[in-house]
From TrEMBL:
Record-linked PANTHER family: CELL DIVISION PROTEIN DIVIB, CELL DIVISION PROTEIN FTSQ
Name the record gives this protein: Cell division protein DivIB
Domain Cell division protein FtsQ/DivIB C-terminal residue range list: 196-309
Function of the molecule: Cell division protein that may be involved in stabilizing or promoting the assembly of the division complex.
A GO cellular component entry from the record: cell division site
C-alpha cells in the first residue's frame, strides 16, 4: 500500500525540523551534520530543545560507559551523567576522611587530659623483688619515691632514685625500676654476695664481692666463708678475693682462714689455715696457680704441718713447741674434766648423806 504525503504535511515537517535546527546550539549542529554524513542518528533527543519531556531510557549498569554501542565506541571517560555517582562517592570519602582527622585531633588531647586528672597517672604502690639480705622497707625508704604523686615525672628521673639506693645500701649492686599494673613501680634488686668475713676484734664484718667491708658486724661468723685477718686495705682485700674466686669450689671450701702476714722482703705473703689442720704459706699473686697442687701434697703428709709455697713447694711438721702447747692444753683439759668429775662425785655423796639423815629424822618422829 502506497501512502501519499501531502505537501501540507511535508511543509509542516520541514517547519518542525527548521524550528529544531534554529534552536540547536552550534555544537549540536556540528554533531548533527557529522552524523548525517556518516549515516548515524543523533544520540541526543531534539525534544529537549522543544520543551518536551524525553522518553525514559532503561537504566544502564555502572560500567555502561565502557560498553560498545552501534555505529561507534562510547566515550572512554563516560558522560557527565555516568560520572556523577562516582563524583558524589569520592566527595563523600574526602569529607569523611577530613572529619575523622578533625575528630582525632580533638580526641587525643581530651584523652590525655582525662588520664592526667585520673588516679591512673598517680603512683599507687612500690613492689621490691629479688632482694635477700636487704629488707624491702629499707630499699623503699632509700628510693625516695612519693606515693600519690605524678607517676611519669618520677619515672623519668628514676636514675637519681637508683643512685640513692646504691649509696644508702652498699649491699645493693643494681636496681631496675619498671612500671606494672598501669601505675605501680617494680624495683628489681641485684645484691652483692658475701664472699668472706673480716675479723674485727671480738666481732666479724661481712666482705662483699667488690671487696668492700660492710659497717655491720656480727658476733658469730657465717659458715662456709673464709675469715680474713690483719687486712687493713680494701684494695688488698679485693686483690685476694679475685684470686680466691678463681679457685675451685673444693679448694675454697677447704680454707677456713686467710691471714695477711707481710714481711720486709715480701708484701704479698699469706698464711692459709686449712680445715684439715695444715697451714699453707703462699703469695697472693700465686694463689690460684700453686694452691691447686695442695690436695696431692696433703695426701703425702704423714702428720699435720706446714706447706710452704712461697718459693717452690716444701713441707715440714709443726714446731715441737706447738705440739707441747697442744699436749699441755689437752692435759689441762683432762685435768679440769677430772676435777669437775670429783666435785660432782663429792656433791653427790653429800646429797646422799643429807637425804639419809632426813629419812632417819622422819622415822624417829
Amino acid at each position: 500500500m502506497v501512502t501519499h504525503i501531502s505537501k501540507k504535511d511535508q511543509s509542516k515537517q520541514k517547519g518542525e525540523h527548521s524550528d529544531v535546527a534554529v534552536n540547536l546550539t552550534p555544537w549540536q549542529k556540528a554533531n548533527l551534520e557529522y552524523r548525517k554524513k556518516n549515516g548515524q542518528d543523533a544520540t541526543w533527543s531534539p525534544t529537549v530543545i522543544d520543551g518536551q519531556e524525553p522518553k525514559e531510557e532503561p537504566e544502564l549498569p555502572e560500567n555502561a560507559s565502557d560498553l560498545p554501542v552501534e555505529g561507534g565506541s562510547r566515550n572512554p571517560n563516560g558522560s557527565f551523567a555516568d560520572r556523577l555517582p562516582k563524583l558524589k562517592y569520592e566527595r563523600n570519602s574526602v569529607l569523611y576522611r577530613r572529619l575523622t582527622i578533625v575528630i582525632t585531633l580533638f580526641l587525643i588531647p581530651l584523652l590525655f587530659v582525662l588520664y592526667y586528672v585520673s588516679p591512673l597517672s598517680k603512683l599507687s604502690a612500690i613492689h621490691v623483688v629479688k632482694n635477700e639480705a636487704v629488707s624491702k622497707n629499707a630499699i623503699t625508704k632509700a628510693a625516695g619515691f612519693t606515693l600519690e604523686d605524678g607517676l611519669w615525672s618520677q619515672y623519668w628521673h628514676r636514675g637519681e632514685n637508683e643512685a640513692k639506693i646504691k649509696q644508702a645500701l652498699p649491699r645493693v649492686k643494681s636496681v631496675a625500676v619498671g612500671i606494672e599494673h598501669f601505675n605501680e613501680f617494680k624495683l628489681t634488686v641485684t645484691e652483692y654476695q658475701e664472699v668472706a668475713i673480716l675479723e674485727k676484734g671480738d666481732s666479724y664484718a661481712p666482705v662483699i664481692e667488690n671487696g668492700k667491708v660492710l659497717a655491720e658486724t656480727v658476733k658469730k661468723p657465717a659458715e662456709n666463708l673464709p675469715i680474713l685477718e690483719d687486712f687493713k686495705s680494701q684494695k688488698r682485700i679485693l686483690t685476694v678475693l679475685k684470686q680466691y674466686q678463681k679457685l675451685s669450689q673444693e679448694l675454697r671450701a677447704s680454707i677456713s682462714q686467710i691471714k695477711y702476714t707481710p714481711t720486709s722482703a715480701n708484701t704479698e705473703l699469706l698464711n692459709l689455715l686449712m680445715n684439715d689442720g695444715n697451714t699453707v704459706i703462699i703469695n697472693i699473686s700465686n694463689l690460684t696457680e700453686q694452691l691447686k697442687y695442695y690436695p696431692q701434697v696433703a695426701k703425702e703428709l704423714k702428720g699435720k704441718g706446714v706447706v710452704d709455697m712461697e718459693v717452690g713447694i716444701f713441707t715440714y711438721p709443726y714446731p715441737k713447741d706447738n705440739e707441747k702447747t697442744k699436749e699441755s692444753s689437752a692435759e689441762n683439759t683432762t685435768t679440769d674434766s677430772n676435777n669437775n668429775q670429783n666435785e660432782i662425785n663429792e656433791n653427790t655423796a653429800e646429797n646422799e648423806s643429807q637425804s639419809e639423815t632426813n629419812n632417819n629424822t622422819q622415822i624417829g618422829q
